[in-house]
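Entries read sequence, tokenised fold; example below:

***
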Amino acid sequence: MLQVFLQGKLLGIDEFLQAPAGAERDRVFTGRSHWVSLLSEILPRALLAELGLAKILLGSSGGGQFMVVLPEEFVPAGDTFLKQAAGQIAALSEGRLRLIWASTENLGDWSDVRKRLNEALERFRGAPASAGFFATRHVYTGAEEYFAGLGLQLRDASSVGWSPDAPGRIVAGESKHTWSLGTSAEALPFARHAALSTDGAEIASTEELAERSAGLTTWGVLRGDVDNFGIRLRRAQSIEEHIQLSVMYKQFFAGELEVLCSMPDFWQRVTVIYSGGDDFAVYGSWDALIALAREMERLFRRFASANLADFAGAEGKTLSMALALAPAEDASLGSVFEEAGGRLEAAKSADKDCIWVLGRTLEWKQFADAFGLKDLLMKMVGEFGVSSQYLKDLCGIYRETQSRMSKRQARKAGGERPWRYHRRIRRILAASTPATGKAAGPLRGEFQKAQTALIADLIGRSAVTVKLRPAGRVALEWARLSAEASAHSASL
């Protein structure tokens, strides 16, 4: 019996997530993201169940795509199933989300099979009418209400269901075909942690999450993506290796993100937007997201070291992220999500294994340095009585240097004399320190040591030239945002 590989893919995910919505725009956005995350898990399972085929024929699923193995005689029935699902998916998304698929015989090496599948998918991508797209395109009038309710229902649901009567819909709870949500081998991996409102009745709004920030009252979106994941998959030597990699990454993001968000530092301050096959997105209090980014990178580095050591090359072994803060109190979740995506693309095009945060792209080692420097900057305010104004004055040094010369000019000139920065920073700290403050008493020696360490962390330790460190700029901005709200509270 000849076997056929059938691969499906969802197109237009970002466009769909960012589409305009009504009064409950953030709830609709969350429901849309959960729906998209579950579609590529449930559709291939529902296909096998409807055709009466064994579960073992499921290859890979999740992350907006799936693959199944079908006996050749079941391919026409599979096409009919997917056309019906594609029609309602298009209706629910108002034509923004498209389901495409292609199939090919299990003949030849896996590299040849994969190439044929990709070429067939590209033909469908450029010719939507071939998938029956225009013939079934209509608008589902209750779409916004469906998505707004789905996000809330899925938070506590123990299972999800699917029915052939509505092939593009997913319901929380029982249906003709039902799958559990959880951590067991049979359950669907699905990260759905949500911070709750004060009364615990619903998911916390972005305004509530902003109020829970330890510092400036604002919120943001953090997005992460594995570097060169597609290359890693293309290097798979067999279908078994392809499936192993797909499942391994998917389970890492779904499992670790759910566990991490349930920790005390995050559980009431961060809500998951989605976890995919090689990426994730969350939103919440801005300072909690910075800490979450560091933990996710640490966990992924450990995951790569334990599971990918035998794979040659650096592809798929590093993770890049971007954090975008809400520009205004009434900003929509979709717009900030889009901003984070743009920042992530820019960071990945310039570098890999990095994070875009607070206006700069940092390598992860530099990001770790920014953590320590931020604590030192806050110590100057909290323990030595230095005015928080000094943070703004120190930020000015960076702005002045950048406006005065380009990076190329700075490299050509070999930097500037470090003593000028030493003198300016000491003068800023001295002007911001009260004469009777802690820095003038028994802790004077400690203050001077902290001051020296601060200068070295900001401008380096060279005795000849100086280069203002990007980690220092991020740490300054971070400390300024943290101290801004503290200073405001003290003045009330």
